[in-house]
Amino acid sequence: MACTIGRGGACAAADKREGDGCTPIGTLPLRGVLLRPGKVTATGIRLPWRWVRANDGWSDDIADPAYNRPVRLPRAFSAENLIRSDDAYDVIVILGHNDAPPVPGQGSAIFFHLSEGRPTAGCVAVDRADMLRLLPLLSPGDAMEIA
């Protein structure tokens, strides 16, 4: 299926840096799914999942001890709000990049999400219909290969 990647193109995962707009190349495990209430249903999802709450965020601040982890907003450090004004984060599949353990500056919030109609900040995005068709096919232990 067609997808959109980062505005900086793709780069080796080892070369990924915070804010570079690159999508990391490699095999990234699917960690879980975050769903926006009222926008999608959870029917048939086999990956671990939960509903996104109004104060959910994801740390993108290299000085934050919770860098590249889910956090609660507001926060003293920079963090991406997981409730967006567009529909891109109605479905978020968390990809396992720089998370075991996170290394500050090597990229955060690398997700598989809905397309915004433009390049991403480093994620992989697909149209809503494709995501909803694919989501129930995903299982624990699956990974996304970005080449």
UniProtKB/TrEMBL annotation:
Which PROSITE patterns did the record assign?
LD_TPASE
Please tell me whether the keyword Ribonucleoprotein is annotated for this protein.
no
Q: Where is the active site?
A: 113 (proton donor/acceptor), 123 (nucleophile)
Boundaries of every L,D-TPase catalytic domain copy? 1-147
Its pathway?
Cell wall biogenesis; peptidoglycan biosynthesis
This protein's UniProt keywords:
Cell shape, Cell wall biogenesis/degradation, Peptidoglycan synthesis
Put simply, this protein is called L,D-transpeptidase
According to its UniProt entry, this protein's organism is: Sphingobium rhizovicinum
